[in-house]
């Protein structure tokens, strides 16, 4: 990856983005489109099809037909594996094209996007492809005259609703295991980052995936997402996004066919620093990166900094220094540390959260304002608010932006109490040189992932899932297969 290649791709015209249904690009049945506004400069980049319920139902019908006739699920495991491996290779081959297209669409800094989007997606697809012929059924320990066998079967049609922060990475977390287990899919990309998933699906067709097995429908969540969730022909729904939308999806499941719904709903993750941390300067740099990379638009972002009071002032100063060096800029420049906010609406929400935090008594230490407004894009620098109490909204509510809430604690017991004092439970971080304390904190904190003396970087080999209002089920690892397969018992009298 070099700057010249990035600049060449930056200036390419982007054709209108259509649905991909039954292996063919289709405009919306209504003929309507939606503008794609680039967060880099506020310009209209292209258009996407404004999907209708009829479009979604057509895609679901295509996926159902593909599943029922067995064109994918009945292929030998080795054949499915070969296609998925070829697909991963093609995603890797087109990685820079996909990364630049995605950055123009959602604003993530290119140095992060290249690794976290196409390369991560290719790795995920490859991981699940390799697992296809390595996951066995089971023989139950029954009495001697009975053979009890447990078969793993695909569920049928999977609907996946993907968020705008990392559509390829998170999309692959759902598409990879769902395809590997033999299902057919309909994917609904996010309205403000719709361009890369249809392109990745086209590469799947090029790799040999049968038509109809993977369909993509763009448009508004309130229209096509609702149609997917209310469909009687979708067997499993996998969603990453807001808690409010997650609740609606559960309601739609109850109103339709009681489809299984798996939700990853974000968090308010605590990043806990004890006074005995071996390298406080390194911890400060990791804390800054853990909240401000991708402008804080990361579900596991360490958005609550809990600092032991003995080192509070010095550590906050170190984090402020590290954060001030991470100012936003053009996300298509390789040396940019922080890209753009995804949309103008998200930027307004981020700024409003800071205003509320200060009104409630927080002390603004850094940032808190829009910047680079002359570009026409949507940018906000790293923002730190100190003196945030557990009762404050900034402590309790996910901002999904570059805003860090700082709270001090006296001892380990108070650190645990503060860490668990929200409705969320997605991720956490603990810094300490005391091994026993590290193990105690891992057990005591209510979260799906607890990092120790680091933050982020957990790869596809381990699950990501939340507790509490951070959702249910797990993306990543072999445990993700559990969402997309049924268990069938064969009870055979011998």
Structure description:
The longest helix has 22 residues. Strand 5 and strand 6 form a beta hairpin. The chain has two domains: 284 residues, Aldehyde Dehydrogenase, Chain A, domain 1 (3-Layer(aba) Sandwich); 190 residues, Aldehyde Dehydrogenase, Chain A, domain 2 (3-Layer(aba) Sandwich), CATH 3.40.309.10. The protein is 38% helix and 20% strand. The strands form six sheets. A seven-stranded mixed β-sheet has the order 14-17-18-13-12-19-20, sandwiched between helices. The mean pLDDT is 97. The protein is of the alpha/beta class. The protein is globular.
Task: Write a brief caption for the model.
The protein is α/β, with parallel strands linked by helices and 494 residues long. Helix content is 38%, strand content 20%.
Which class best fits the helix and strand makeup?
alpha/beta
For the biggest β-sheet, the strand order reads 14-17-18-13-12-19-20
Low-confidence stretches: none
CATH topology label of the largest domain: Aldehyde Dehydrogenase, Chain A, domain 1
Beta-strand proportion: 15-25%
Give the integer mean of the pLDDT values. 97
Name the CATH superfamily classification of the largest domain. Aldehyde Dehydrogenase, Chain A, domain 1
Distance between the termini: 62 Å
CATH hierarchy: architecture of the largest domain:
3-Layer(aba) Sandwich
